[in-house]
Amino acid sequence: xxxxxxxxxxxxxxxxxxxxxxxxxxxMIMCDGIVGKKMGMTSVFVADGTLVPVSVLEVGxxxxxxxxTLSVDGYNAVQVGFGHKDIKRCxxxxxxxxxxxxxxxxxxxxxxxxxxxxxxxxxxxxxxxxLQPGDKVNVSGTSxxxxxxxxxKRHGFSRGPETHGSRNHRAPGSIxxxxxxxxxxxxxxxxxxxxVDRKTVKNLVVIEIRAEENLLLVKxxxxxxxxxxxxxxxxxx
Length: 237
What we know:
This protein has one domain (2-145, 194-234): Translation factors (Elongation Factor Tu (Ef-tu), domain 3, Beta Barrel). It has 4 helices and 13 strands. 11% of the residues lie in helices and 37% in strands. 23% of the residues are buried. By secondary structure, it is mainly beta. The protein is extended, with a radius of gyration of 23 Å. The strands form 3 sheets. Strands 2-3-12-11-8-13 form a 6-stranded antiparallel beta barrel. A 5-stranded mixed sheet has the order 1-7-4-5-6. The longest helix has 9 residues, at 2-10.
């Protein structure tokens, strides 16, 4: 019932776990980070009757594709794959890499640092077991692209007068110096491309977890557009 409501609100079809990993709950292991996809926003009632705006994230299952160790790679981390991709549509190097963790291809790969890499091995599946309602997470993703924008929208500049013959409405104003140094200083706030930046929203509260549907509801907005790839990392208490 909950999935049906989300589909109707967001007008987007939620995909089920990719083929070959439908019954993996018993094999899931814990990690402080996981990869997901933004489905959109809605609102839910919490226990005290408050209506809370939430972002709906389709999270995992993620498969460990590589374990990196300090002795071999210089740092400890696990590489995980998210999103089903037909292995026939992968490049040969990628297909060979994915073959070490099973017969499935992945849309994207991400890494998360771990303290004990010996606890992981390729083919293991990461789930939402490491999160509980009330936990806080940091969500990272790519912000929406805004195209070429002026200084008012891009940097929050104030506009000029609208009346009395003013010809300076949305112009950026003076940008240079005088005789010295006779150039525009580096880092000057100017019109230009806006968006498509990596952004992290910190300390979002987990409102609800639907492990059987691979859904995570967090309070507030997260970066990016619908279907955008996100990294969810638990905040250490």
